[in-house]
Write a structure and sequence with these properties.
120 residues
Length: 120
């Protein structure tokens, strides 16, 4: 998460432009497309550090869930062929399974980290 977030931060404007093509929340609230790379990077760094899990986990769960729903709708329901903004703005990575997997892993981390903190 942290590394992918940092790649997005290299060119937030390009990332935002590509992200708006498929993310449902960003299409309704454009500032979310600028917030996303910072949120992903912050959640990743906090999880790596094992600090402030009660901030990092809900953040990862939220952005992962919105992302998974958005990618699933764009690729598997609408059958759109888009480029993924997952490694920053100017990539040729197709939106699809890898993007969906990235978001599902974020969701999983958002659920697992607080459970780990509670029970271990």
């Amino acid at each position: 998460m942290a590394l992918l977030g940092l790649q997005k931060l290299q060119d937030v404007e390009s990332f935002s432009t590509m992200f708006l093509n498929y993310d449902l929340l960003a299409q309704r609230h454009v500032p979310y497309s600028y917030f996303y790379p910072y949120a992903e990077t912050l959640a990743g760094i906090l999880m790596l550090a094992g600090a402030l899990i009660w901030i990092a986990a809900p953040l990862a769960l939220f952005i992962g869930t919105v992302g998974a729903v958005s990618v699933f709708k764009a690729v598997y329901i609408d059958k759109r062929e888009l480029k993924c903004a997952c490694v920053g703005g100017n990539s040729n990575v197709p939106l699809g399974f890898v993007s969906l997997t990235e978001n599902l892993i974020m969701m999983g981390m958002g659920i697992w980290m607080p459970l780990k903190a509670l029970f271990l």
